[in-house]
Write a sequence for this structure.
């Protein structure tokens, strides 16, 4: 299994390169993963998306679709793509310490 | 050597039935979600999906479609297509697949480009005013190929 060394801690990754254990995640780790993904600073908008994704995952064991994300998190589609360029759902899930979303939408 | 990842897709939607339009929309949106550039080119009856007065009324074809598992004569009964359409829309809503108009807005806001085919527009005597606001332009086949430079072209 691949690992990611962050802050002196070795974190297990799943086959997609996302954190294998949701409980390894904290806000500092999120910021560091974001930096690796090319997002220098996580703004309040980023956090709104990340926290919404985590709260949905907590309840439903899957990440929300982009449609639901934009309808319920208060961040619209254009902003979402600007916040997480190169694939918002995938990027946001990785930074949120969640597995890659399963859905097609 | 690992395969070259797809960076750009140009998807042609040529049919105007609900099941003819959705695959292209899902693929375009899915491309944007993966960070892949996407453009949609609507041609022939596919134009119904971007014509303001028609886009909300697309229907599932219940005749001439063996995969509906419905005898042709039954499929031809009045109301059958509307019934199949409403059933399918319900199932799609459960999967969080948006209606056509909302889907187009979503793809456009995600940076996907949307074009109408010049030849069909002229043939059906349409103007830009007939189309929803997400349509970026009416373009010729030649312009389509120019815009599709470096893309995978997908015909649906």
């Amino acid at each position: 299994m691949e690992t990611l060394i962050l802050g002196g801690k070795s974190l297990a990754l799943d086959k997609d390169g996302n954190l294998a254990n949701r409980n390894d995640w904290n806000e500092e780790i999120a910021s560091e993963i974001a930096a690796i993904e090319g997002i220098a600073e996580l703004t309040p908008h980023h956090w709104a998306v990340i926290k919404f994704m985590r709260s949905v995952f907590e309840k439903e064991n899957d990440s929300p679709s982009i449609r639901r994300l934009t309808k319920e998190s208060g961040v619209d589609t254009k902003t979402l793509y600007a916040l997480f360029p190169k694939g918002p759902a995938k990027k946001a899930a990785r930074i949120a310490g969640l597995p890659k979303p399963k859905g097609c939408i | 050597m690992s395969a070259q990842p797809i960076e750009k897709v140009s998807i042609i939607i040529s049919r105007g039935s609900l099941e003819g339009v959705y695959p292209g929309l899902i693929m375009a949106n899915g491309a944007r979600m993966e960070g892949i550039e996407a453009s949609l080119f609507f041609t022939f009856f596919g134009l119904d999906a971007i014509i303001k007065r028609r886009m909300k009324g697309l229907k599932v074809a219940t005749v001439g479609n063996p995969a509906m598992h419905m005898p042709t004569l039954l499929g031809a009964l009045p109301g059958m297509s509307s019934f199949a359409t409403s059933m399918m829309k319900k199932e799609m809503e459960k999967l969080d697949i948006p209606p056509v108009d909302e889907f187009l807005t979503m793809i456009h806001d995600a940076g996907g480009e949307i074009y109408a085919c010049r030849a069909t527009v002229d043939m059906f005597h349409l103007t830009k005013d007939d189309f929803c606001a997400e349509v970026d332009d009416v373009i010729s086949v030649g312009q389509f190929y120019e815009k599709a430079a470096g893309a995978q072209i997908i015909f649906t």
In short: Chain A touches chain B at residues 65-68, 70, 76-78, 81, 85-90, 103-105 (CB under 8 Å). The CA atoms of residues 2 and 13 of chain A lie 5 Å apart. The two ends of chain A are 29 Å apart (CA to CA).
